[in-house]
Amino acid sequence: MGKCVCSLVLMGLCMMGELASVFGATISPSSIFSSIIQERMALLVSGWWNDYRNSSDHCYWKGISCNEVGSVTAIDSWYIKTPSSQELLWIDKLNFTAFPNLVSLFLTGMGLKGSIPKEIGSLTNLTTLDLSNNRHQGKLLQFS
Q1: Helix residue spans in 93-132 (DSSP H)
Q2: pLDDT at 126
Q3: Which residue, among 26, 20, 102, has the nearest Cα to 69 in the 3D structure?
Q4: Any idea which fold 7-136 has?
Q5: Which of 4, 29, 45, 93 could bridge across to 66 with cysteines, CB 3.0–4.6 Å?
Q6: Alpha-carbon distances of 26 from 13, 43, 123, 143, rounded to whole Å
Protein backbone atom coordinates (compact mmCIF):
# COMPACT_ATOMS: atom_id res chain seq x y z
CA MET A 1 0.00 0.00 0.00
CA GLY A 2 1.15 3.58 -0.53
CA LYS A 3 2.25 6.15 2.00
CA CYS A 4 -1.11 6.02 3.75
CA VAL A 5 -4.64 4.92 3.29
CA CYS A 6 -6.85 7.55 1.76
CA SER A 7 -9.85 8.65 3.81
CA LEU A 8 -12.54 6.86 1.79
CA VAL A 9 -10.71 3.55 1.83
CA LEU A 10 -10.08 3.96 5.57
CA MET A 11 -13.77 4.59 6.18
CA GLY A 12 -14.64 1.53 4.11
CA LEU A 13 -12.23 -0.64 6.05
CA CYS A 14 -13.66 0.65 9.32
CA MET A 15 -17.16 -0.23 8.18
CA MET A 16 -16.07 -3.74 7.23
CA GLY A 17 -14.18 -4.26 10.48
CA GLU A 18 -11.00 -5.14 8.59
CA LEU A 19 -8.90 -2.46 10.28
CA ALA A 20 -8.99 -4.07 13.73
CA SER A 21 -6.56 -6.77 12.60
CA VAL A 22 -3.88 -4.13 11.99
CA PHE A 23 -3.98 -2.96 15.61
CA GLY A 24 -5.17 -6.18 17.28
CA ALA A 25 -8.59 -7.35 18.29
CA THR A 26 -8.88 -5.08 21.34
CA ILE A 27 -9.10 -1.81 19.39
CA SER A 28 -12.29 -1.06 17.54
CA PRO A 29 -12.22 0.34 13.99
CA SER A 30 -14.27 3.34 15.11
CA SER A 31 -11.68 4.28 17.75
CA ILE A 32 -8.89 4.03 15.15
CA PHE A 33 -10.84 6.28 12.78
CA SER A 34 -11.55 8.71 15.63
CA SER A 35 -7.85 8.81 16.55
CA ILE A 36 -6.87 9.62 12.96
CA ILE A 37 -9.40 12.46 12.86
CA GLN A 38 -7.97 13.80 16.13
CA GLU A 39 -4.48 13.75 14.62
CA ARG A 40 -5.64 15.71 11.58
CA MET A 41 -7.43 18.26 13.77
CA ALA A 42 -4.36 18.68 16.01
CA LEU A 43 -2.25 19.45 12.94
CA LEU A 44 -4.77 22.01 11.69
CA VAL A 45 -5.28 23.67 15.09
CA SER A 46 -1.52 24.21 15.41
CA GLY A 47 -1.78 26.58 12.43
CA TRP A 48 1.42 25.15 10.98
CA TRP A 49 -0.43 23.41 8.14
CA ASN A 50 -2.91 26.15 7.21
CA ASP A 51 -2.20 25.61 3.52
CA TYR A 52 -3.86 22.19 3.79
CA ARG A 53 -7.23 23.13 5.30
CA ASN A 54 -9.04 21.92 2.16
CA SER A 55 -7.06 18.69 1.87
CA SER A 56 -8.70 15.81 3.72
CA ASP A 57 -5.78 13.38 3.84
CA HIS A 58 -3.13 14.68 6.23
CA CYS A 59 -0.78 11.85 5.26
CA TYR A 60 0.05 13.73 2.06
CA TRP A 61 0.84 17.02 3.77
CA LYS A 62 4.47 18.16 3.69
CA GLY A 63 6.35 17.10 6.79
CA ILE A 64 3.89 14.35 7.76
CA SER A 65 4.47 10.61 7.43
CA CYS A 66 1.85 8.01 8.30
CA ASN A 67 1.62 4.27 8.77
CA GLU A 68 -0.51 2.02 6.54
CA VAL A 69 -3.77 2.91 8.31
CA GLY A 70 -3.22 6.68 8.22
CA SER A 71 -1.91 7.39 11.73
CA VAL A 72 0.91 9.96 11.99
CA THR A 73 4.30 8.37 12.68
CA ALA A 74 6.63 11.29 11.87
CA ILE A 75 6.51 15.08 11.86
CA ASP A 76 9.43 16.84 10.18
CA SER A 77 9.78 20.63 10.25
CA TRP A 78 12.17 20.55 7.28
CA TYR A 79 9.04 20.59 5.10
CA ILE A 80 6.93 22.94 7.23
CA LYS A 81 6.72 26.60 6.33
CA THR A 82 7.78 28.53 9.44
CA PRO A 83 4.72 30.38 10.77
CA SER A 84 4.84 34.12 10.14
CA SER A 85 2.47 34.90 12.99
CA GLN A 86 4.12 35.30 16.41
CA GLU A 87 1.06 33.64 17.91
CA LEU A 88 1.81 30.42 16.02
CA LEU A 89 5.42 30.22 17.19
CA TRP A 90 4.55 28.67 20.56
CA ILE A 91 5.45 24.99 20.74
CA ASP A 92 2.32 24.20 22.72
CA LYS A 93 0.19 25.04 19.65
CA LEU A 94 0.60 21.36 18.72
CA ASN A 95 -1.38 18.89 20.85
CA PHE A 96 1.24 16.17 21.21
CA THR A 97 -1.14 13.77 22.97
CA ALA A 98 -3.10 13.43 19.70
CA PHE A 99 -0.27 11.36 18.15
CA PRO A 100 -0.08 7.97 19.92
CA ASN A 101 1.90 6.38 17.07
CA LEU A 102 4.46 9.16 16.64
CA VAL A 103 7.97 7.71 16.24
CA SER A 104 9.95 10.75 15.01
CA LEU A 105 9.47 14.40 15.87
CA PHE A 106 11.72 16.97 14.21
CA LEU A 107 10.72 20.56 15.00
CA THR A 108 14.16 21.94 14.20
CA GLY A 109 14.78 25.60 13.40
CA MET A 110 11.19 26.81 13.50
CA GLY A 111 11.92 29.56 16.02
CA LEU A 112 9.43 28.00 18.44
CA LYS A 113 9.05 29.58 21.87
CA GLY A 114 7.95 28.35 25.27
CA SER A 115 8.68 25.44 27.55
CA ILE A 116 8.97 21.98 26.07
CA PRO A 117 5.55 20.44 26.77
CA LYS A 118 5.58 17.58 29.29
CA GLU A 119 3.07 15.79 27.04
CA ILE A 120 5.96 14.87 24.74
CA GLY A 121 6.95 12.45 27.49
CA SER A 122 3.68 10.55 27.03
CA LEU A 123 4.56 9.60 23.46
CA THR A 124 5.52 5.99 24.18
CA ASN A 125 6.52 5.18 20.59
CA LEU A 126 8.75 8.24 20.17
CA THR A 127 12.34 7.22 19.42
CA THR A 128 13.69 10.39 17.77
CA LEU A 129 13.20 13.92 19.07
CA ASP A 130 14.92 17.05 17.74
CA LEU A 131 13.84 20.45 19.02
CA SER A 132 17.14 22.20 18.31
CA ASN A 133 17.53 25.76 17.02
CA ASN A 134 14.38 27.10 18.66
CA ARG A 135 13.84 29.57 21.49
CA HIS A 136 12.69 27.25 24.26
CA GLN A 137 12.55 28.41 27.86
CA GLY A 138 12.42 26.59 31.16
CA LYS A 139 13.75 23.27 32.38
CA LEU A 140 14.45 20.29 30.19
CA LEU A 141 12.19 17.29 30.56
CA GLN A 142 13.44 14.14 32.21
CA PHE A 143 12.50 11.01 30.31
CA SER A 144 12.61 7.62 31.92
Answers
A1: none
A2: 97
A3: 20
A4: 3.80.10
A5: 4
A6: 16, 27, 20, 28
Report the residue count for the chain. 144
Cα separations in angstroms, 52 against 15, 18, 31, 62, 119: 26, 29, 24, 9, 25
Asked if 38 contacts 72 with a C-beta cutoff of 8 angstroms, the reply is no
CA 13 from chain centre, in angstroms, equals 22
At 42-82, the pLDDT tens digits run 999 998 888 888 888 999 999 999 999 999 999 999 877 77
Interhelix angle 7-16/29-46, nearest 10 degrees: 150
Distance CA 136, CA 138 (A): 7
Half-sphere exposure in the Cβ direction for 103 (13 Å, CA):
8
Work out whether strand 64-66 and strand 104-106 pair parallel, antiparallel, or are unpaired. unpaired
- The domain ranges of the chain are 7-136
